[in-house]
Amino acid sequence: MGHISSLMKVLLISMQEPAHYYGQGHNRKKLSKKLLKRKMKMFKNLKNKIERNPVSSLIVVVLLVCFISVAVAETFRFVKTGRLEVTRSLISSGTLTQSGNASFAGNVSITGATTHTGGHALATSTPTIWSTGGSTVLATAGTDVACSDGARWWTEITIPYNVTLTGIFFLVGSVGGTDSVVVELHNSAGAVVASSVQGDTTIADIVGTAANIQKVPFYSTYAATAGKYYIAVQFNGTTAKFRAYPIPGSAFIAATAAGTFKTGAAITPGTTFTADKGPMSGVY
Predict the structure, then answer these.
(1) Pair 176, 252 in one domain
(2) Is 103 in contact with 86 (CB distance < 8 Å)?
(3) In angstroms, rounded to a whole number, what is the distance separating the alpha carbons of residues 52 and 264?
(4) Burial of 197 by CB count in 10 Å (0-12 exposed, 13-18 middle, 19+ buried)?
(5) CATH code for position 156
(6) C-alpha distances in Å from residue 172, one per residue of 96, 180, 235, 240, 279
(7) Are 42 and 93 part of one and the same domain?
C-alpha cells in the first residue's frame, strides 16, 4: 500500500493550488517553482514504487484525478488586486460572487438570473430612450399643456444599461417659437445629475417649432448607469405648450412643482401618476 500512500501525497501536493496563496501576498514565480519541485519529487518516488509493484486500476484512476486537479488548478489565477482571470471554461452550479474586475477570454454561459449592481455596459451606440410612458407617432398625441413660468414638469424614465447621454428631447405642443426652456435629468432620489444650464448666465434654448420633437443638449454629457431617473422640463413663460401623458392610472410617476427658472433644484418624485403633467419625452 506504500504506492497508494505516495500517490495520495502527490494528489494533496497537486491541489495546493498557487492561487490559494496569491491573495496572501506570496510571490507567484517563487511559489510556483517551489510547488513544482515538490510535485516532481513526489512523482519520482511514486515511479520507483510503481516499478516494484503492479499498477492497479485504482492507481490509474487516482493518477488521472491527480492530473485533472493540476489542470483545473491552472485554469484560475487570482492576483493580489482581486481580479479574476479565466482562461478556460468557467462552470458554477451555485452562486458565483465577484466584487472586483473579471476578465473572460472565452465564452461565458449563464443559465440563471444575473444581478449587475453597477449597471451593464453595452457596446458603444447612440441611444434614444423614451420615458416610461412610451413613444408616440402622432404630433398631436397626449394633452396640449400650457407652460407655467418656472414650474418643473417631470416624468419617470428607466435607463436599461450604462450609457453616455447628450441631452433630453420632448414633444412641443400647439404653440412654439416663444419662451425659453431648460431640461434636467434627476436621479431616483430626485437630485439633479445633468442639466442644460450651468449657472444663471447660461442662455436657455427657445422652445422649438410647434408639433415637433425638440432636442435640448445638456451643458455637458452625462455618464448614466442603469436605473430609474426623471426627466424635467422648465419654462420661463406661459405662452409655449408641450405634450403630456394623459391617461389616468398610468403605471409610472409624473408630476409638477413650482420653481425658479434656470435655478437647479431637487424634486420630490412622489409615487403616483398625475395626468397631463409628465412631458412626452426621452433622452438621447
Answers:
(1) yes
(2) yes
(3) 86
(4) buried
(5) 2.60.120.380
(6) 49, 12, 12, 8, 9
(7) yes
The verdict on residue 118 lying in a domain is: no
Give exposure, 114-145, as e/b (b: 16+ Cβ within 10 Å): eeeeebeeeeeeebebbbbbeeeeeeebbbbb
How does pLDDT run across 235-255, given as a tens digit for each residue?
A: 999 999 999 999 999 999 999
For residue 131, report the phi and psi dihedrals to the nearest 5 degrees.
-65, 170
**Would you say how long the chain is, in residues?**
284
147 and 256 in a single domain? The answer is yes
Pure H helices in the chain? 2-14, 19-22, 28-52, 57-73
Q: Is 281:184 a contact under the CB 8 Å cutoff? A: no
Q: Name the burial class of residue 262, with classes exposed (0-12), middle (13-18) and buried (19+) by CB atoms within 10 angstroms of its CB.
A: buried
Rounded Cα distance between 17 and 143, Å, is: 67
Chain segment 94-150, per-residue pLDDT in tens:
666 766 666 666 666 667 666 656 555 555 566 899 999 999 999 999 999 999 999
Residue with cell 409638477: 256
pLDDT tens for residues 253-266? 999 999 999 999 99
Residues 69, 242: Cα–Cα separation, whole Å: 67
CA distances from 13 to 26, 67, 138 (A): 17, 11, 72
> How far is Cα of residue 224 from the mean position of the Cα atoms in its chain?
9
Q: List, in order, residues 6 or more apart from 237 with CB less than 8 Å away.
A: 147, 149, 178, 179, 180
Q: How far apart are CA 133 and CA 254, in angstroms?
A: 9
- What is the spatial distance between Cα 122 and Cα 129, in angstroms, rounded to a whole number? 14
DSSP E strands in 40-142: the ranges are 76-78, 84-86, 102-104, 129-130
